[in-house]
From TrEMBL:
Domain Thioredoxin: 2-168
Assigned keywords, A-Z: Antioxidant, Oxidoreductase, Peroxidase, Redox-active center
Catalysed transformations (reactions): a hydroperoxide + 2 glutathione = an alcohol + glutathione disulfide + H2O
Cellular component terms per the entry's GO annotation: cytoplasm
Superkingdom field: Bacteria
SUPFAM superfamilies: Thioredoxin-like
Protein name: Glutathione-dependent peroxiredoxin
Summary of the function given for this chain in its UniProt record: Thiol-specific peroxidase that catalyzes the reduction of hydrogen peroxide and organic hydroperoxides to water and alcohols, respectively. Plays a role in cell protection against oxidative stress by detoxifying peroxides.
Enzyme active site: 55 (cysteine sulfenic acid (-soh) intermediate)
Recorded family membership: Belongs to the peroxiredoxin family. Prx5 subfamily.
Molecular functions per Gene Ontology: thioredoxin peroxidase activity
GO BP, sorted A to Z: cell redox homeostasis; cellular response to oxidative stress; hydrogen peroxide catabolic process
EC number: 1.11.1.27
Length: 172
């Protein structure tokens, strides 16, 4: 499993782009993880699925509400990652009011979840393989803080925990 001090796994995440610009076409666009985190501080939170109860009622809204505080603490971008396709993530982002605050990044095949060692098997519940609920602070592609939830829990991956970690991160 990914741990503090590790580089994020190589690969791509996908984002549904609604307005063409900055080299991005309309629709799903692939973003290389290493390139997208190079020289940046990124708050990433992962969760099992779009439009699911805890994810929609607590996890995403917490990060949307804390976006300005996270940016004031030195975070360049906030990513929500889930094993869903980019179309679903885009629709969920619209429903959550995430535009301009949280990038809704799709891990459609679960490649990131597997490579990070954070895959959660929910096949018994009809949900397939998912991303375990977690949050991390990534600086220049390296994990500087990591919070992984026990299955079915939402106690350590919330926005306020990651905000405290971002504020405590040495700068320079």
């Amino acid at each position: 499993m990914l741990k503090v001090g590790d580089r994020l796994p190589n690969g791509a995440l996908y984002e549904f782009i609604e307005v063409e610009g900055e080299g991005c076409s309309l629709g799903p666009n692939a973003f290389d993880i290493a390139q997208s985190t190079a020289g940046r501080t990124v708050a990433i939170f992962g969760l099992p699925g779009a439009f699911t109860p805890t994810c929609s009622a607590q996890h995403v809204p917490g990060y949307v509400a804390a976006a300005d505080d996270l940016k004031a603490a030195g975070v360049d971008e906030i990513w929500c990652v889930s094993v869903n396709d980019a179309f679903v993530m885009g629709a969920w982002g619209r429903a959550q009011g995430a535009a301009g605050k949280v990038r809704m990044m799709a891990d459609g095949n679960g490649d990131f979840a597997r490579a990070a060692g954070l895959e959660l098997d929910l096949t018994a519940r009809g949900l397939g393989k998912r991303l375990q609920r977690c949050s991390m602070l990534v600086v220049d592609g390296v994990v500087r803080a990591l919070n992984v939830e026990a299955p079915g829990k939402f106690e350590v991956s919330d926005a306020q925990t990651l905000l405290a970690q971002a504020r405590a991160l040495p700068r320079g």
